[in-house]
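Contributing: when you submit paired examples, paste them exactly as shown. First protein:
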Amino acid sequence: MRIKLILILSIAIFFDAFFVLAQRPEWKDILTFSYFHNRGYEVLERICDEAGGRIAGSAPNEKAIQILIEEAKKDKLSLKLEDFDFPGWVRKADSVQLIFPFEKIFRCVALGFNNPSELIEAPVVFAQYGYEEDYVNIDAKNKIVIVTQERPKNKEELLRYEAIEIAARKGAKAILFINDKQGGLVLAGVGNFQGEPNPIPAFSITYEDGQILKRLLKRKITSIVQVKSNSYCKPSKSSNVIFTIPGKSQRKIVVGGHFDSWDISQGAVDNGVGIAVLYEIARNLSRFKDFYYTIEIVWFNGEELGLWGSKRYAKKHKDEVELMINLDMPGDPTGFNTMGFTFLDSITNSIVENLEGFNLKDGVISRPWTNSDHMYFMFEGIPSITPLGWMDESMYHHYHDFGDTFDKVNKKYISNSAGILSILIYELAKSSIDFPRLQRQEVIELLKKNGLDKRLKKQKEWKFD
C-alpha cells in the first residue's frame, strides 16, 4: 500500500509540473488538425450508408470493416484484424400482430438470442413490471405476457432477462416488453448476457401499441396476439480492428470503442460517433513520434451482443495494458470520468483546467459503471477513463431504435472529442509514469462501494466468487 501511495503522489507531482508547459505547440497542432482535417465524419457516412446496421458476425459488419480498412489506407494507416469466436445471433423476419378484437401489425424488434418458434397465437395478460409477485393473480400459462419497461419506485430494477425467465417459469409462450418512451420507438437489446437461447420469444414493442393492449385488458376485452420468431442463435466469428502507434515501451494505452451496432438502424450515434472519433485520434496521433507508451486504438466488435470483442481482447492482452480509455457514444466533451481510479484525477483535471476554451463544465468525476467495453479491463484492475459528453436530444432519443441514423451525427462534436482526447492521450503516452493497477480485492471493494456487484450478479457477470 505504501508503494502504491508513493506512485500516486509521484503521478500527481509529475503531471502538475508537466502541465506548467500546457498549451504547447503540439496541443495547438492537435486541435488544428481535428478541425481542419476531420475525415472521420465522411468515413462514418460511408459505413452508415453503404453497410447499414452492423451487428457482429454479419455480412454488413464485415463490409463496414472493409470500408474502414479502405479509408485507412488513404490516410496511410495500417490496420490489422484480430479474430475471435463468440455466441452469435442472426435476425430474420420476426413479427408481432394483434388479430382480435381487430387486426394491427405491431412495430416490434426481437431481442437478441431469440430462437425460431412456431406460430404462436394466444391471449395476452398484463404482468405489470414482470416481478414474481406481479403474477399472483394472473394465469400466464399458454398466454403471451406483456410487461412495462417503466421502473417502479423504491424497488430493485428487474432486468429483461430476469423477466423473461420468470415469464417462462409461469408457462408463458412469449413476452412483450412495452417501451417506456413515446413516439413509436422500440428498444433493441439482448435477452441475456451469456449468449444463451432465450427460453421463450421476447420482443420490444412501442409504448403506443402497449397502451392499446393495456386498455383492452382493463376493459376485460379479450386480446389475441400472434407472434412468430424466425431469428436464430449460431456460433459466430468476428474481428476487432486494431491500429498501433509504437512507443519505446511495449506497454499499451488502449483507446477503444465498439464498432458493431444493432442491425435495425445505421448505428450512427451508437457507436458510429465513437468509430469516427477513434479514426480521427488515429490519424492525429500517428503524426507524432517518440511516445513512451505504445498507443493501441481498437474498434471492438460484439459489444451489443455481450461485450465479446473487448472481453476476448482483455483476456489476451491484459498483461500488456497500462491504461484503458473507452469511447462509447462520446458526444461533445464536458469532462472525464476516472471510473474510481482517483489517482487519474490530477491528470484529467490538468487537461480540463488548461482547455478553458472548451465547455468542460462537468470537470472530473470518478464513478465506475459497467456494460461497456472498459468493463473487463476494470475487472483486471486496469485504470480506465471514459469521457463525459453532451448529446443533442435527437442523438439519444433513438437509442437502440430504428431512428439511429447518420443525419443525427454532429460533425463538430467529432472534432471536439477527437481534439480533446488526442491531447489527453498524447500527454499520457509521452509520460513514463507507471499507472498502478488495483488488486483483486480492491476491485471487489470498488464495485461494491458503487453498488455494481448486485447488477453484475443479476447479469451473471460477477467474476469474483
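Second protein:
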Amino acid sequence: MVINVAFKVRGIGLSSFFGAMLAVSATAQIRVEDPKKTAERSVEGRVNSRIDQGINKGLDKVEEGIGNIFKKKNKGEKDQKTKGKTTKDNDEQQQEDSNDAQVNETSSSKASSTKANSQGGAAAAKDEPKSMKAYSKFDFVPGEKIVATEDFSQDAVGDFPAKWNTNASGEVVTMEGAKFLQFAKSGVYYPEFVKELPENFTMEFDMLASEDLSVNMSGLKVFFPEFKERKLTFDQNFNSSAQAGIDIHPTADGESSTSSVWVFDKNSEKVVENTNRLAWKTNVANRVSIWKQKTRLRIYVNETKIWDLPKAFDSSLKYSMLFATSIFEGTVYLANLRVAVGAPDTRSKLITEGKFSTTGILFDVNSDKIKPESYGVLKELGTVLKENATVKVRIIGHTDADGEDAKNLDLSKRRAASVKNALQTEFGIEAARMETDGKGESQPVAPNTTAEGKANNRRVEFVKL
C-alpha cells in the first residue's frame, strides 16, 4: 500500500492523515507458481481475502475523512453569508453610525448578538463579550500617533479596496453592519498606503473566519518582510529572506484553533518556528493586536498575549507588512485596520512634561462605554498615578468634527467621566485627584479631512494639575 500525504510548507505542521490532496493507491498481488496444488490455492485465497479486507478498511477511513472535509454547509450558514452583502441604504446607515467612532470600533458586539441569538442561548453565552476584568493581563498600549487606518468606507460592496493591491482577488462585504475585506483562498495582499514601518509601531485589526474554515493549510498570515521584499511576487511558502510572520488559524469549534510563528534572519536562516493553541471566539470578530518595539514582537488575540519574541527583528533592517492566504476551504475577513507609531512613555509625558494624550482608550459607537481592550492604556495610567500619589489630573475628552457640535461636546464630557470612573473603580485612584472636562471637536490636533486625522482627533487627554 502506498499513501501520499500533502502538507503545508509554512504556517502549521503536518496536515491530518485525511487532509487535503490525499491520494491512496493500493495494489496487492499473490503469484502462485503451481495453481494445481490445492493447498497453495487455499493459501492464495486466504491471503488475498485478508489483503482485500485491509484495503477496504483503509479506503473506508479515507472516504470518511474526505467526507468530513467536504461537509456541505447547511442552509443557515448559506443564509448567514448572504447577509454579508447589503444594500446602499445599509452602507449609508453605517456611515451615520460611525460618527465619532474610534477607528477600530467595529460592530462585533452586534454580530455576536445577532448570530448567537440565531444559534441559541448556549452560543450566546459562549461568545458574550468579556468585561474589563478579563483583560487584567492585557498590557498592549497603542502607538502615540495613528498613521494609517482602513475601514473600507470609501469602497463599494463587491469591489476590491481601491487603496490595496493583490495578486489574487477579494471584495468588500458587509458583515452584520460593518465592512470587511473578504480574502480569496490564495494570494498576497497589502495596503499601499502602509510603506516602511518605523522601529516602534502597533498594528490592530478585526478578523472574522467562516464556520467552514478548514484545519488544513492556513488561516490568515501576517508577514513583516523587508520593505524591498514587499511585493506581489512574494512567495509566502518558500521566501526565506529576513522576516517575521504569523499564521492565525481559527476553527469552527474554536478549540482546535492554532497560531504559528516563524522568523528568518538576514542570512536566510530560520531562527524561530513554533505553533500553539489559540483562544478564539467563534461567531464574532476577534481583535488582533501587534506591537513591535525595536527587536521585540508581541502579538495578542483579544485579551490574550499569544507570542512575545524578544529577537524577532533585526535593528539594521527596514520592514514593511503584508497579508497572505493559502486556505483549503472557507474564508477569512479583515476590518478596521489601524497602524500607529511611537513608543508610549506615559510616565515621562504626564509627570515630566505635564500632559499625556492617547487614542488608545476606545469606546462603543456614539457611547461613553469603554471597550475592554482599552485596559492596557488605563492600567499604565493607573500605575503612574499610584506611583505619584500627590499628582492630580484633569481628564479631557475630544472628538472629531463629524456630527453636531453640541452632541460631540456632550459625548466628549461623558467619555472623560467614564475614564475617571474606570480609573477609580478598576485601579483605586481617588476621585478627588481627578477632574473631567470635554472639548468636543473644538481642539483638533490634525485636519478632519482624512480618516487618519479624524482618528487622531478622537482622543483622551490627561493634564497634570
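If you have annotations for the second protein, write them as plain sentences, like these:
The chain has nine helices and 21 strands.
Confidence is low (pLDDT under 50) at residues 1-9, 12-40, 53-129.
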